Structures are given as C-alpha cells and as structure tokens.
From TrEMBL:
<protein>
    <submittedName>
        <fullName>Uncharacterized protein</fullName>
    </submittedName>
</protein>
Amino acid sequence: MELEEYNRSGDLRLLQTFLADNARWLSTHTDPDNYANQVDVLHYLHRDAEACTLMPRA
C-alpha cells in the first residue's frame, strides 16, 4: 500500500514505512517477491549495503 501511495505523493516517509513493515513481514514469511521489493527500495534510497545483504533471498 505504501508503494502505491508513494507513487502518487512522492513522500519518502512512505518508503521508510514500507521498509519497516516489509521487514517485519519478512521475519516470518520468506517470499522472494517481497525480498525483491525490499532490495529495490533500499537501492532507490541509496542504502546499497543493506540491499546487498538481502539480494541472495530475492
């Protein structure tokens, strides 16, 4: 939901919220698509080191 709203508003806080919510989800549900979304958003925010740690799961 946050990603859709971000696309409309451009509010970077929504991406931060997405990362936190998605990280909680990924702690109990291993879903390659959600890992890929997490990696994409981290790269977009130039948090490449964090993204690289998740890439093998995406």
